[in-house]
Amino acid sequence: MLSRRSFVRTLGAGAAASTLAPLLHGRGLEAMIADAAGASLPVGDVPPIKLDSNENPNGPAKVAVSAVRDAMREAALYPRDRVAALRDAIAARDGLPADAVMLGAGSAEVLRAAVFAYCGPDRPLVTAIPSYEAPQRDASLVRAPVRGIAVTGDMRLDLEAMAAAAPGAGLVFLCNPNNPTGTLHGADAVAACIARITRDAPGTMILVDEAYHEYVTDPRYATALPTAMAQPNVIVSRTFSKIYGIAGLRVGYAMAQPATIATLRRQVLPLSINQFGAIAAHACLSKPDVVARERDANRATLDWATASFRRLGFTVADSQANFVLVDLARDAQPFRDACKAAGVLVGRAFPPLANHVRISIGTPREMARAMASFTRLLATA
Predict the structure, then answer these.
(1) pTM for this structure?
(2) What is the CATH number of domain 4-61+289-380?
């Protein structure tokens, strides 16, 4: 059995801890220093352990930090060339024409563009409940009804019900892996869902959000990109915010057939990607080992956190992302409040899952310290 102490000793001294040195910011650094000194600092003396926003606790890769630092003189220039170079690099990586890629200020701008382009008062949005909420908020801006489809008992998207709700809709939003549940559907299930929607609702667009694509280790999974390249009604969105650790620089992208991308592009601002976001993202693509390293570190810590909660008797959804969803079997809000008072920030509420809490994966040392607080708070609840 992997204890908290042996977990920190095994991972903290190895590859996961070694990523701390080149960081742009001090995420988790104070907690590491306190543990190394054998001290438990008061909450008021250190920033809270931030496990609430699915951010990469290891920060941006060294290559991204160096690239931005070296390009500071380019702040005086408009980012056209850098944005074009990033678009071309994404296209080259996936064997696409350049006009099959559209950049956005995070995947949030891509999702909004899709909702604005395809939804309206008579063109509803179909989405899971719960799922990433941005498309629902954007639908309200164009007065589009929302057809919310509850996740299944095992916290997965109900693909059959979502496909049944697609006729007459403007857009079906499939978040795979899903946020906040972390669960996914394999390639065959997603392909069957898309085929059914295409058959029964030929005028409906389908957006497959793959924000957590790089974290997946389940062999049943595959990107929906080949389908998007074969069918004009399918869009794939991804982001550099998660595994690449540059959420603050706001770089996301869509991939679809060129005609579909042209429709989306009418809904985004020109030059919404800043110079340094484009530079950092391009630098990350130049070092593909970044993905494998971050994925492996995340998986080890996620597995430990999942096992720890299950040993405490709680149900945890099978996550393929960088967070876990824990069923506390009681109203989760008092636990959130207690965690905050203890210096640990956990995820917001995701109605209607009032008894669940989403906890992002931090560094090994952050998670060990946080789990000690979780154990104490859950035992005394």
Answers:
(1) 0.86
(2) 3.90.1150.10
